[in-house]
Design brief:
Oligomer: single chain
Distance between the termini: 16 Å
Number of helices: 5
Radius of gyration: 14 Å
Strand order of the largest sheet: 6-1-2-3-4-5-7-9-8
Shape: globular
CATH superfamily: Gcn5-related N-acetyltransferase (GNAT)
Strand content: 25-35%
CATH class: Alpha Beta
CATH topology: Aminopeptidase
Order of helices and strands: EEHHEEEEHEHEEH
Structural class: alpha+beta
Protein backbone atom coordinates (compact mmCIF):
# COMPACT_ATOMS: atom_id res chain seq x y z
CA UNK A 1 0.00 0.00 0.00
CA UNK A 2 1.25 3.45 -0.84
CA UNK A 3 2.23 5.57 2.12
CA UNK A 4 0.62 8.81 0.90
CA UNK A 5 -2.40 9.88 -1.17
CA UNK A 6 -3.57 13.34 -2.28
CA UNK A 7 -7.27 14.19 -2.60
CA UNK A 8 -8.40 17.30 -4.48
CA UNK A 9 -11.13 19.58 -3.12
CA UNK A 10 -11.97 16.90 -0.59
CA UNK A 11 -12.97 18.59 2.65
CA UNK A 12 -15.09 21.73 3.11
CA UNK A 13 -15.23 24.15 6.01
CA UNK A 14 -18.88 24.18 7.07
CA UNK A 15 -18.88 27.89 7.97
CA UNK A 16 -17.95 28.99 4.44
CA UNK A 17 -18.32 25.95 2.19
CA UNK A 18 -14.76 26.49 0.94
CA UNK A 19 -13.15 23.23 -0.18
CA UNK A 20 -9.61 22.19 0.66
CA UNK A 21 -7.24 19.57 -0.66
CA UNK A 22 -6.47 16.71 1.69
CA UNK A 23 -3.57 14.37 2.34
CA UNK A 24 -3.97 10.81 3.55
CA UNK A 25 -0.96 8.94 4.83
CA UNK A 26 -0.04 5.97 6.94
CA UNK A 27 0.04 6.88 10.61
CA UNK A 28 2.45 5.66 13.25
CA UNK A 29 1.40 4.01 16.50
CA UNK A 30 2.78 7.02 18.39
CA UNK A 31 0.55 9.39 16.38
CA UNK A 32 -2.47 7.17 16.93
CA UNK A 33 -1.92 7.17 20.70
CA UNK A 34 -1.46 10.94 20.69
CA UNK A 35 -4.76 11.50 18.83
CA UNK A 36 -6.89 8.53 19.94
CA UNK A 37 -8.86 10.69 22.40
CA UNK A 38 -10.40 12.51 19.39
CA UNK A 39 -11.72 9.21 17.98
CA UNK A 40 -13.95 7.59 20.57
CA UNK A 41 -15.73 4.97 18.46
CA UNK A 42 -12.72 2.83 17.53
CA UNK A 43 -9.37 1.85 19.02
CA UNK A 44 -7.02 2.33 16.08
CA UNK A 45 -3.99 1.01 18.00
CA UNK A 46 -5.86 -2.28 18.41
CA UNK A 47 -6.67 -2.27 14.68
CA UNK A 48 -3.01 -1.75 13.85
CA UNK A 49 -2.05 -4.62 16.15
CA UNK A 50 -4.60 -6.82 14.33
CA UNK A 51 -2.83 -6.34 11.00
CA UNK A 52 -4.68 -3.32 9.65
CA UNK A 53 -2.84 -0.43 8.04
CA UNK A 54 -4.11 2.83 9.52
CA UNK A 55 -4.28 6.05 7.50
CA UNK A 56 -4.92 9.55 8.76
CA UNK A 57 -6.59 12.16 6.58
CA UNK A 58 -5.70 15.83 7.06
CA UNK A 59 -6.04 19.11 5.24
CA UNK A 60 -3.04 19.65 2.96
CA UNK A 61 -0.46 21.66 4.88
CA UNK A 62 -2.00 20.75 8.24
CA UNK A 63 -0.81 17.16 8.62
CA UNK A 64 -0.71 17.42 12.42
CA UNK A 65 -4.49 18.00 12.72
CA UNK A 66 -6.31 14.77 11.96
CA UNK A 67 -9.68 15.10 10.26
CA UNK A 68 -10.26 11.35 10.23
CA UNK A 69 -8.70 7.90 10.34
CA UNK A 70 -9.36 4.58 8.64
CA UNK A 71 -7.98 1.06 9.16
CA UNK A 72 -7.69 -1.16 6.06
CA UNK A 73 -6.30 -4.57 5.17
CA UNK A 74 -6.22 -7.03 2.31
CA UNK A 75 -8.96 -9.61 2.03
CA UNK A 76 -9.92 -12.09 -0.67
CA UNK A 77 -10.93 -9.99 -3.70
CA UNK A 78 -11.53 -6.71 -1.88
CA UNK A 79 -10.14 -4.24 0.64
CA UNK A 80 -11.49 -4.65 4.17
CA UNK A 81 -12.21 -1.33 5.89
CA UNK A 82 -12.19 -2.23 9.56
CA UNK A 83 -12.76 1.18 11.06
CA UNK A 84 -13.68 4.53 9.49
CA UNK A 85 -14.11 7.55 11.74
CA UNK A 86 -14.06 11.32 11.56
CA UNK A 87 -12.53 13.43 14.31
CA UNK A 88 -14.97 14.36 17.08
CA UNK A 89 -14.90 18.02 15.96
CA UNK A 90 -16.38 16.93 12.64
CA UNK A 91 -19.42 15.36 14.33
CA UNK A 92 -22.50 16.90 15.93
CA UNK A 93 -22.76 19.32 17.58
CA UNK A 94 -19.57 20.97 16.27
CA UNK A 95 -19.41 19.81 12.59
CA UNK A 96 -16.36 21.90 11.73
CA UNK A 97 -15.66 20.26 8.35
CA UNK A 98 -17.85 18.26 5.98
CA UNK A 99 -17.07 15.52 3.45
CA UNK A 100 -14.42 13.92 5.67
CA UNK A 101 -16.34 10.64 5.74
CA UNK A 102 -16.87 10.73 1.98
CA UNK A 103 -13.15 11.41 1.50
CA UNK A 104 -12.31 8.43 3.70
CA UNK A 105 -14.58 6.17 1.64
CA UNK A 106 -13.00 7.47 -1.60
CA UNK A 107 -9.54 6.87 -0.14
CA UNK A 108 -10.46 3.25 0.65
CA UNK A 109 -11.73 2.78 -2.90
CA UNK A 110 -8.49 4.24 -4.32
CA UNK A 111 -6.32 2.01 -2.15
CA UNK A 112 -8.44 -0.97 -3.23
CA UNK A 113 -7.99 -0.03 -6.87
CA UNK A 114 -4.23 0.42 -6.43
CA UNK A 115 -4.02 -2.98 -4.73
CA UNK A 116 -5.76 -4.73 -7.64
CA UNK A 117 -9.28 -5.05 -6.19
CA UNK A 118 -10.94 -2.69 -8.73
CA UNK A 119 -11.97 -0.27 -5.97
CA UNK A 120 -14.18 -2.81 -4.19
CA UNK A 121 -14.37 -2.33 -0.43
CA UNK A 122 -16.36 -3.99 2.36
CA UNK A 123 -17.11 -2.87 5.90
CA UNK A 124 -19.50 -3.19 8.81
CA UNK A 125 -21.80 -0.21 9.27
CA UNK A 126 -23.54 1.04 12.34
CA UNK A 127 -27.33 0.84 11.91
CA UNK A 128 -27.76 4.60 11.85
CA UNK A 129 -25.21 4.96 9.01
CA UNK A 130 -26.92 2.75 6.39
CA UNK A 131 -28.55 5.75 4.69
CA UNK A 132 -25.27 7.66 4.79
CA UNK A 133 -23.33 4.88 3.04
CA UNK A 134 -26.18 4.32 0.60
CA UNK A 135 -25.60 7.87 -0.70
CA UNK A 136 -22.31 6.54 -2.08
CA UNK A 137 -24.03 3.51 -3.63
CA UNK A 138 -22.99 1.09 -0.89
CA UNK A 139 -25.15 -2.01 -0.76
CA UNK A 140 -25.97 -4.37 2.08
CA UNK A 141 -24.48 -7.84 1.82
CA UNK A 142 -26.11 -9.13 5.02
CA UNK A 143 -26.81 -7.78 8.49
CA UNK A 144 -24.55 -4.81 9.10
CA UNK A 145 -22.13 -5.83 6.32
CA UNK A 146 -21.95 -3.41 3.38
CA UNK A 147 -19.82 -3.07 0.25
CA UNK A 148 -19.08 -0.65 -2.54
CA UNK A 149 -18.63 -2.19 -5.99
CA UNK A 150 -16.20 -1.18 -8.72
CA UNK A 151 -18.61 1.19 -10.53
CA UNK A 152 -19.56 3.15 -7.42
CA UNK A 153 -15.91 3.16 -6.35
CA UNK A 154 -14.81 4.64 -9.67
CA UNK A 155 -17.20 7.58 -9.24
CA UNK A 156 -15.61 8.44 -5.88
CA UNK A 157 -12.09 7.93 -7.22
CA UNK A 158 -12.79 10.22 -10.20
CA UNK A 159 -14.18 12.87 -7.87
CA UNK A 160 -11.12 13.11 -5.61
CA UNK A 161 -8.09 11.68 -7.43
Amino acid sequence: MRSKYYLKNAIALNATGKKYNAVAEKITETEIKKNQHQFKDFDFTKSQNEGYTVYKICLAGEENILQGMVAVKHSTGFLECGNMETNDFNKSPINLYQYVGKSIIALCCKISQDEGYDGVIAFYAKNHLFAYYSRYEADILFGLRMFIDDKAAQKLIDLYF
